[in-house]
Amino acid sequence: MRADPRARVPYALFVPAGIGVAFLILPIAGLLIRAPWHQLPSLIGSPAVRTALRLSLETATAATAIAIVFGVPIAWVLARLEFRGRSLLRAFVTLPLVLPPVAGGIALLLAYGRRGVVGSEVLKVFGVSLPFTTAAVIVAETFVAMPFLIVSVEGSLRGVDVRYDHAAATLGASRMFTFVHVTLPMLGPGIAAGAMLCWARALGEFGATITFAGSYPGTTQTMPLQVYLALQDNPDAAIALSLVLLVVSVAILAGLRDRWLRA
Amino acid sequence: MNRPALAAVVTAVIVALGVAACSSSKKAASSTSSQVAGTVVVFAASSLKATFTALATNFEQANPGVKVVPSYGGSDTLAAQITQGAPVDVFAAASTATMGTVTKAGDGVGTPQVFAKNELEIAVSPSNPDHIGGLADVTKSGVKLALCAATVPCGAAATKAFAAAKLTPHPVTLEQDVASVLTKVELGEVDAGIVYQTDVKSAGGKVLGVNFAEAASAINSYPIVVVKTGKNPTAAQAFVNYVESQAGQQILQTAGFEQP
Question: pTM for this one?
Answer without folding.
Answer: 0.77
